[in-house]
Write a structure and sequence with these properties.
Blueprint lengths: L1 H18 L5 H4 L2 E16 L4 E17 L11 E10 L2 E2 L6 E18 L2 E24 L2 E21 L4 E10 L4 E2 L6 E2 L2 E10 L9
Antiparallel strand pairs: 1-2, 1-11, 2-3, 3-5, 4-5, 5-6, 6-7, 7-8, 8-11, 9-10
């Protein structure tokens, strides 16, 4: 657990160091790198026992906003394409604590700022999807030795939500995610189901959103 937390922290620090270079003002209005932290919660249903357990997951995200719409004033684009990559901390299965999982995901969002009086608003909408790679781990003892069994699953997830720009470098957002792959075990690897979740998070932009420095 500690090793994975340290690894996750190292990735974020490395990413911040790489992308915090001094962009020219012109380039930074078209391309914006972001680092984020998300909390996701969803109900994992056990249909056999007709019960459900809540799952908590924390993820780190690296994303980039690429302007798509024509810019009439500096940094005034309202439409962005947002590729992203995210990795989670290990999570124990609430139905069976012997199982734990970690997720790696890559996806694409369309980010649309709302207009207010023909100007770019601080509110925005997000929509898109991601491919999630779920790695399940089972720790067990055999012949007095601790062993580890791994199983991998793919989940296909659609996302939708919105957010708000707090400052020229910080934004918050909320998303609803619907998974279509049976990638989550309820009690064991023979009983898999899909997972829908709600997420909230914060992102820090590595270059200023100059429009919001007004």
């Amino acid at each position: 657990m500690l090793k994975k937390v340290l690894c996750l922290s190292s990735v974020m620090m490395f990413s911040g160091h790489v992308f915090s270079q001094n962009y020219s003002d012109r380039r930074s209005q078209f391309v914006k790198w972001n680092l984020g932290l998300n909390y996701s919660g969803g109900s994992l249903s056990n249909k056999e026992e007709k019960s459900s357990q809540w799952v908590n997951k924390y993820t780190a995200t690296l994303s980039v906003d690429v302007a798509l719409s024509e810019i009439f004033y500096f940094d005034s684009s309202t439409l962005y394409l947002q590729p992203f990559f995210e990795v989670s901390l290990p999570v124990k299965n609430p139905n069976n604590s012997e199982f734990k999982f970690v997720t790696y995901a890559g996806g694409l969002h369309l980010k649309k700022y709302l207009n207010s009086n023909f100007e770019k608003s601080r509110f925005f909408l997000l929509g898109g999807g991601k491919l999630e790679y779920v790695v399940w781990t089972l720790d067990y003892v055999k012949n007095n030795k601790e062993r580890e069994y791994k199983s991998t699953q793919f989940d296909y997830v659609l996302n939708g939500g919105g957010g708000y720009v707090i400052s020229d470098r910080i934004e918050v957002f909320a998303l609803y995610s619907k998974g279509f792959g049976k990638a989550y075990t309820t009690t064991d690897l023979d009983h898999m189901t899909n997972l829908s979740s709600f997420s909230v998070g914060v992102k820090v932009t590595l270059v200023k959103n100059w429009w919001f420095t007004k």
